[in-house]
Amino acid sequence: MRVAVTGATGLIGRALVGALIARGDPVVALTRDPQRARSALTGADLLAWPDPQHAPPPAAALDGADAVVHLLGEPVAQRWTERAKREIRDSR
Questions:
Q1: The sheet that has 3-6: what strands, in order across it?
Q2: Do residues 73 and 7 make contact, with C-beta atoms less than 8 angstroms apart?
Q3: d(Cα 45, Cα 34) in Å, to the nearest integer?
Q4: Distance, CA of 69 to CA of 8 (rounded, Å)
C-alpha cells in the first residue's frame, strides 16, 4: 500500500515511516526540507512541501497514494502562550 505521510520527521511520523517501510510499503514523505529529512527517513521517497500553511501539497505526493496520514502541525509540547495556541489550532 502506497502511503503519503505529512509530519514524517516528527516523533510519531518517524516511527510510522519506519514501520511502514519495514513491512514493505512504499512511503512518500512530504517535508519542508528533504535534505535534512534524508537521514531520518531512510527508504522513503521525499517530496518538498516548503510552505504547508499557505500552499497545497504537491500533487505528485498524492498521486497513486492508497492512504494519507496527516501528522503535520505545530508541536504541542511547548509553553501555551496565546500565540502558540493560535499556531497549534491553525496548523491542523
A1: 45-48, 27-31, 3-6, 67-70
A2: yes
A3: 9
A4: 9
Amino acid at 68: V
pLDDT digits (tens, 9 = 90+) for 38-92: 989 999 999 999 998 889 999 998 999 999 999 998 888 999 999 999 999 988 7
Alpha carbons within 13 angstroms on the beta-carbon side of residue 6 total: 19
- pLDDT at position 13: 94
What cell does 23 get?
513491512
Paired sense of beta strands 3-6 and 45-48, if any: unpaired
Q: How far apart are CA 87 and CA 27, in angstroms?
A: 28
Give the whole-angstrom CA distance, residue 70 versus residue 25: 17
What's the predicted TM-score (pTM) here? 0.86
Bridge partners of residue 45, in order along the sequence: 28
